[in-house]
Amino acid sequence: MHMPRLLIVSNRLPVTVKVDQGEVSLARSAGGLATAMRGPHERLDALWIGWPGDVSRLTDAQRHAADERLAAERTAPVHLSQAQVARYYDGFSNAVLWPLFHYLADKVELDARRDWEVYAEVNDRFARAVVERWRPGDFIWVHDYQLMLLPQMLRERLPDARIGFFLHIPFPSSELFRILPWREQILRGMLGADLVGFHTASFRHNFANSAARVLGVEPEVDVVQHEGRAVRLGVHPIGIDVAEFARLANDPGVLAHAQQIRRETGGRTLVLGVDRFDYTKGLPRRMLALERLFERGPHLRKKVRLVQLAVPTRERVDAYAELRRHVNELVGRINAQYGSVGGVPIHLLHRSVPPDYVVALYLAADVMMVTPLRDGMNLVAKEFVASRVDGAGALVLSEFAGAADELSDALLVNPYDIDSVASTLQRAILMSPAEQHARMRALRAQVEANDVHAWARRFLDDLALEDPRRPRPSLASAPAKLADEIAASQYLELLLDYDGTLMPLARTPDQAQPDDALRALLRALAERPRTRVNLVSGRKRDNMDAFFGELPIAMHAEHGFWFKPRGGAWAAAGDANPPWKDEARAIMDRLAARTGGAFVEEKAVSLAWHYRRVDAELASVRLRELRYLLRDLADVHRLEVLSGSKVLELRPAGVNKGLAVARARADAPPGARLVAIGDDRTDEDLFTALPEGSIAIHVGRGDTIARYRLESPEEVRALLEALVHGS
Ligand code: ADQ
């Protein structure tokens, strides 16, 4: 039997193919994601699918050698042409999504239509590569913004696959996200997953909000119902390989290197920055803050040195060239102003270095500056903390890094506020050893509690979870069996909803006229021996009369407020013109007048505030307002405020479809079995009121307490036909 595996899918493989003097070799790829997933990849024996770098210049033999090396590393390459990389990666991913998601809208490429097309095409390439390797039971974990369309593409081809998606970068506020011309496709793409993970609760909130505004879904905090599936939204702050950093930090070679770096600093306070050379990392403002510090405190000018390690990255994207020019200029200016024969205050190392070198720097530093303008998480902050096994050192951290949510014992700063960064830097430089140790202790506890292995485990556990709150009752794959069970009842009391249950939902209520076949079916059921039929609807009395008046059945209109027994007349369950209505109507009208797309509907017993066509965010504000305004009235008159699908209804407490159950039971012979079928929330009242031994059947997807589920009104009718004719 096939053991289920994990398929990791990301833009880049953790290794990149290199050719050196004809020899093919694999080099470790840089960047936060590759670093983070390397451990889980090894530990979980997973297969990693991604781009191995450009192999277009390789000979056939070299390419063959590369593929073998890659397979030995449990990776599977998705080869991309240079033209594809230029548009999908440099273009759409890094010149559209990356700046936009980091709140730098001015850096977004002007016209990206062609890049978008190639982005979709490459996502499809990835989809085919995954489908080729997926076997039933395998889990798929897709990573990051380069592959946002992939979950949906996989869902279409592998409907039963368990698919997780994790976004390593921020998800911006919906105000910003909606700028994206392809916002709808991106959201739908992500929602193909079973679980979508973010670093922080606010990214998750932004995503849910965007989905509400753009797609009109109604998200709860951690779940969105989308196309008949429940997509869970998780908060999974990524960690680092803490043990590995501790090991490096205790390595004698690394310690000696750290000592050497300190000696070279010549007694100055060592301020450290370690970043990919990216405009989101806030390098220019960090330099300006240092300059501000020197302006204000001449005594610090010869006592502080900033070592800035900057890994080359995305060098073909224009905005990055511009950044390098700008940073070089600032460094030149500040060094010229404040340098001396003894040395310059800023050392910019524009290169990648091995991990032990980075840890030696972390250990040598007095102050670590992590001041991105926006960052999904920022691993450098956590690496610094994990490396400080000596418990010393101060961390200055941007409040706009995801890490700030966890690392609240750092000195948090607004990286845009240069004055404040300067004074916080000064505070860090002057921090007493006692304070350093106290803060570092708390920071280390935090980082240790959530390392990268725990992170991956939690995400995968979540992905494996059948959500306990959302049991998915078996779609009655054998309606015939269910019909047999019902047919076996001694005496049958049927309680049937109309819209969405016997009839497909129509765009407007008056389009949903019953057809002759349905009337015939209900009549046949009513004439079936030992069987009674109740129609239980939210519709008005006259409407139900017009539809079914001539049939020998009982009817419950307006969610059970009106009742008409078989052959009898309509009677109300209470005052049909209650005193609270005028007041409630005035409140609802007032609010509807201020809310485009909203309208009020008056029924005999209730008032409904409809907001199907209202902007989702505005609707949520208005609903809160409405509930607040109706609070006192509801208290005094014992009213319930019910939320249905895009409608808020106010009605007397206890007047709901459950009343139909009490009435049906009142004159049913002992041993009668109740069978209730319905599709929306108001039918849940019906199900709740059922006595033991009854059968509840929910129609369609979504939450329910019913034990059975049928797919559609067609299936409901088939079931009822089977009762009439025997199956
Ligand atoms: P990145 O933007 O790549 O990651 P980050 O989380 O800081 O940012 O990771 C950078 C990695 O590169 C770190 O592991 C660091 O040690 C390493 N590094 C930096 N400078 C280096 C140098 N000169 N030489 C060698 N290595 C160097 C994205 C998101 C982040 C998120 C991660 C993981 O942008 O917000 O934290 O993914 O989810």
Describe the structure.
The chain has 727 residues and is an alpha/beta fold. It has four domains: 230 residues, Glycogen Phosphorylase B (Rossmann fold, 3-Layer(aba) Sandwich); 216 residues, Glycogen Phosphorylase B (Rossmann fold, 3-Layer(aba) Sandwich), CATH 3.40.50.2000; 167 residues, 3-Layer(aba) Sandwich (Rossmann fold); 72 residues, Alpha-Beta Complex (Hypothetical Protein Ta0175, Chain: A, domain 2), CATH 3.90.1070. It is 43% helix and 19% strand. The protein contains 25 helices and 28 strands. The strands form five sheets. It has an eight-stranded mixed β-sheet with strand order 5-4-1-6-7-8-10-9, with helices on both faces. An eight-stranded mixed β-sheet has the order 21-20-19-18-17-26-27-28, with helices on both faces. Strands 13-12-11-14-15-16 form a six-stranded parallel β-sheet, sandwiched between helices. Strand 12, helix 12 and strand 13 form a beta-alpha-beta unit. Helix 1 crosses helix 17 and helix 3 packs across helix 4. The longest helix has 22 residues. It is elongated. The two termini are 38 Å apart. About 2% of the residues have low confidence. The structure holds adenosine-5'-diphosphate-glucose (ADQ). Adenosine-5'-diphosphate-glucose (ADQ) binds next to helix 1, strand 11, strand 12 and helix 14.
Kindly summarize this structure in a few lines:
This protein has 727 residues and is an alpha/beta fold.
